[in-house]
Design a protein that fits this description.
38% helix, 17 helices, alpha+beta, 8-stranded antiparallel sheet
Length: 488
């Protein structure tokens, strides 16, 4: 094995790499982007450099190749915490096409390291969705984590994962367990995760006292979840419960409350927001960000292309040794982009360590001025604002073909409020679903948590400032100028 590692190091250390670049990362990104399982990847997984090995674990998982199962399963027992965490997460990614061992996931749910337990909650959810043998039994340890884990991030992630058991034979018991956890939880973000799971998967089964408590919760994200939960119960009597929230100080709560009353009154949800609803007080205009764009000036060539591994920013080591690092960016400076709109300025911070080719693609488009003047062509209350493509003028906001697609870069970052992610094409037919590897120019920013999108969509950054601008956007608004500003 030692010889294999030495050989891999020789292959994976490219000549001419930037001084601060992580050695070997570029070759791994290249192999991963072609969905190539190879001896190079498995050798890198065995490297004594835990940063390189962890990056290889993520790359192997993203190939979705069944041959990656053995090496990744072995790596879930590694000494290094960050490698274990990424191996567990990568192992879970295989579940969409290949059955994985539920016993391995169960062991990871009991790992002493919170980063590993975070990864295991995601793997459990994917194992259940993919129909892996024995995955149904993972609900029991997930319930234990949701109610009692010492780490707040793990508790929230476990609650979200349990939404995958919405059609399980024991779903009533699971709903009761989440409701109990919500009743005793004191951490607002964890309560918001529990509320999301109840709303998404167990609305009918949520006890009435929990619903009333949720509608009056001090946290606006919790109130949003329960306002939607009431609509999902499909009981017109819920309108009376919702009416007090029409005076809520939060624009997001008011918007969701109006949507819920709309549904309970027999109308369809708003799928295209063309005017601010009466009764919603939009956030006040935000201060304009005046940071100068980075020089040199933007590229005049508007030619679109799929970014190569050579264009990726690979300076930050991927070492998620804590639950917080499995839930966010690595320490260090990150590229930032200012999105000036007709309603104000949004600044997003990008995470190339988790999504190198996606970030390279976004920055390429920004540097070519591709997004300047593009309309926000999908604004959905309590869901997303979406833009990025050049409209053809055809019905249904048809977008001109970009001529290329990106490989998906699934990662453990949640689809919380304010994340920026790539849009995907969908299949047609009775059960449409997102097409993997179909992203190119379209992106969206979430208005509220959309954790069900964790499975398929690539998060590549987070709104740093200007989130209230999202509450002012409607579908005639545009991006006026999108530029890169100083890293932070």
């Amino acid at each position: 094995m030692a010889a294999a590692v030495v050989a891999a190091s020789a292959v994976l250390s490219p000549l001419g790499a930037a001084p601060a670049e992580q050695p070997g990362y570029r070759r791994l990104v290249e192999l991963e982007s072609t969905r190539s399982f190879s001896d190079e990847l498995t050798a890198a997984l065995a490297s004594s450099d835990a940063s390189l090995a962890g990056r290889a674990a993520l790359a192997l998982g993203r190939t979705e190749d069944p041959r990656a199962a053995g090496p990744l399963k072995n790596a879930t027992a590694a000494r290094d915490v960050s490698l274990r965490a990424l191996a567990v997460y990568g192992y879970g990614l295989l579940a969409s096409k290949n059955p994985i061992d539920a016993g391995t996931v169960a062991l990871a749910l009991k790992d002493q390291a919170s980063a590993v337990r975070v990864a295991a909650t995601d793997a459990a959810w994917r194992a259940r969705a993919g129909g892996s043998p024995g995955a149904d039994a993972l609900a029991v340890p997930l319930l234990a984590l949701a109610g009692h884990d010492a780490d707040r991030i793990v508790r929230g992630r476990a609650a979200v994962a349990l939404s995958g058991w919405d059609k399980a034979a024991n779903r009533a018991a699971i709903a009761t367990g989440i409701a109990r956890a919500f009743a005793s939880e004191r951490d607002p973000p964890v309560r918001a995760h529990e509320a999301w799971s109840l709303r998404r998967a167990f609305a009918i089964l949520t006890p009435a006292p929990i619903v009333r408590a949720g509608l009056a919760d001090a946290d606006e994200t919790v109130r949003i979840q329960f306002a939607d939960l009431v609509a999902r119960r499909k009981d017109r009597a819920g309108i009376a419960l919702l009416r007090p929230l029409l005076r809520d100080p939060s624009w997001r709560v008011r918007e969701q409350t109006l949507e819920s009353i709309r549904v309970l009154s027999g109308r369809k949800r708003t799928d295209q927001l063309t005017a601010i609803p009466a009764g919603v007080v939009t956030p006040p205009p935000q201060p304009v960000n005046t940071e100068p764009p980075l020089s040199p000036p933007r590229v005049a060539d508007a030619t679109l292309h799929r970014p190569a591994a050579a264009e990726a920013l690979l300076e930050l080591p991927l070492r998620p040794s804590t639950s917080a690092l499995m839930d966010g960016p690595m320490p260090g400076p990150h590229p930032r982009v200012r999105i000036a709109t007709t309603q104000g300025t949004i600044v997003v911070r990008l995470y190339p360590e988790w999504a190198p080719l996606t970030v390279a693609n976004f920055l390429n488009l920004v540097n070519r001025g591709y997004y300047d003047g593009v309309r926000w062509y999908r604004v959905v209350p309590d869901f997303v604002v979406q833009s990025g493509g050049h409209l053809t003028g055809k019905p249904d906001n048809d977008v001109a073909p970009a001529g290329y697609t990106l490989p998906a870069e699934e990662n453990p970052l949640e689809q919380r409020a304010g994340v920026i992610s790539m849009g995907l094409d969908y299949t047609t037919g009775k059960n449409p679903h997102a097409k993997r590897d179909s992203a190119n120019v379209e992106f969206y920013i979430t208005i509220s948590p959309q954790y069900h999108l964790n499975r398929d969509f690539t998060v590549f950054g987070q709104v740093e400032s200007g989130f209230p601008v999202l509450g002012r956007l409607i579908e005639r608004d545009r991006m006026t100028q999108v530029v890169r500003i100083a890293d932070d």
